[in-house]
Design a protein that fits this description.
Layout (H helix, E strand, L loop, with lengths): L3 E2 L2 E2 L6 H27 L11
Length: 53
């Protein structure tokens, strides 16, 4: 559930530039997560448990 200001969601009060900045930030953090996961599974050996698991 999103936070509310009166009867409107906070997201409705955001400016276009703020929305674009948040979207870019989310895309960047997802890219970091993807590369970490890709590196983790690329170096994995079939049939062996993941290191540190």
């Amino acid at each position: 559930m999103t936070n509310r200001i009166g009867n409107k969601d906070v997201a409705q009060q955001r400016s276009k530039s703020e929305k674009a900045r948040i979207k870019a930030q989310n895309i960047a953090s997802e890219a970091v997560k993807k590369t970490e996961a890709r590196a983790r599974y690329r170096s994995a050996v079939k049939g062996q448990p993941a290191p540190g698991a």
